[in-house]
Amino acid sequence: MSGPVDVKSFGKVAVLMGGQSAEREVSLMSGAGVLKALQSKGVDAHAFDPAERDLVELKRKGFKRCFIALHGRFGEDGTVQGALELLGIPYTGSGVMASAIAIDKTMTKRVWVAEGIPTPKYQLLRRGLFTREQVIQVPDELGLPVIVKPAREGSSIGVTKAQGYSEMQDAVTKAAELDADILCEQFVSGDEVTCPVLGTGDTARALPVIRIVAPEGNYDYQNKYFTDDTKYLVPCGLPEGEEAAIQEIVLKAYKVLGCRGWGRIDVMIDGKTRKPYLLEINTSPGMTGHSLVPMSARAAGISYEDLCLMLLADAALDQEAKTK
């Protein structure tokens, strides 16, 4: 976004928040922050919860663009994006295909592996099709501990760090309650960092890397949103050259998935080799008081309000975005 923005040109704006996913609570917090920020900038912005109202109302009520503050399924997975494409209402963030791939951690890994982007080794189990023996064999392939998670949930929901063979079954059962696909992933011990990206195509840029130091190294749902015990370090304090290298690989990973608008990629740095391993990408990251994209943007000199305005100014439909 360059130069002043004519907020009146945006027309009536819907901030999509809430929704039906397991991350509804976080989405409502994100949406409330975005709504307040846009209104403070003079945008004619209104809250819109797709769990309570039909999306067709957007057209009927004269909304001209949408800020997607939904997280997880039915918000970050290409479904809402597809509906908005059909309605012809430009929206923030990635389009249909990139959103659908990025929500699925396994599909994301397949694309990254094909493009030579480092990501931890993994095995996929399918609900109802795996045997007890197969579950027990996972650590033989990936080592211990093993990270077990649903393939399509965010905010660390349903994630377990299985320390031994005996914990595997419970971990897989827990993940299977949330998703038919259960991702078992090699644990990388070292620094946990995250790196946001803003923009589309050649104009996309990586923001400052944030290093996350959680209590006992446990960056779970509670520590993400509801405690002040987790430390977020910006500047990240990584050895010289490491931050730039992470930003470079994160930017590549974002582009190969066809992402646009914004996103945030989570990375583990192996403590021994210092090699970064990309875990997953969020195409509709949190915008709460604890959220990391606003924190990184602030370190780059971008206020929360200006960030919201930038994202809204970038709202587009898939076809428009590809021809920009």
CATH class of the largest domain: Alpha Beta
Query: How far apart are the termini?
Result: 13 Å
Give the topology string: H per helix, E per strand.
EHEHEHHHEHEEHEEEEHEHEEHHH
CATH architectural designation of the largest domain? 2-Layer Sandwich
Helix-and-strand structural type: alpha+beta
Task: Tell me the β content.
Answer: 15-25%
* Rg value: 19 Å
Shape summary: globular
According to CATH, the fold-level topology of the largest domain is D-amino Acid Aminotransferase, Chain A, domain 1
The CATH superfamily name of the largest domain is ATP-grasp fold, B domain
How many domains? The number is 3
Quick one: biggest sheet?
Answer: 6 strands, antiparallel
Keywords: ATP-binding, Cell shape, Cell wall biogenesis/degradation, Cytoplasm, Ligase, Magnesium, Manganese, Metal-binding, Nucleotide-binding, Peptidoglycan synthesis
EC number: 6.3.2.4
Enzyme class: ligase
Family: Belongs to the D-alanine--D-alanine ligase family.
Structural commentary:
It is a single chain. The protein has 12 helices and 13 strands. Helix content is 36%, strand content 21%. It folds into 3 domains: 7-92, Rossmann fold; 101-118 and 188-323, ATP-grasp fold, B domain (D-amino Acid Aminotransferase, Chain A, domain 1, 2-Layer Sandwich); 122-186, Dna Ligase, domain 1. The chain is globular, with a radius of gyration of 19 Å. It has helices at residues 24-40, 56-60, 79-87, 96-103, 105-114, 132-142, 165-176, 221-225, 242-256, 292-299, 304-313, 318-323, and strands spanning 12-16, 44-48, 65-68, 122-126, 146-150, 160-162, 181-186, 190-198, 205-206, 210-213, 231-233, 262-270, 276-282. Strands 8, 9, 10, 11, 12 and 13 form a 6-stranded antiparallel beta sheet that branches. A 4-stranded antiparallel beta sheet has the order 4-7-5-6. A 3-stranded parallel beta sheet has the order 2-1-3, covered by helices on one side. The model has no long low-confidence stretch (mean pLDDT 93).
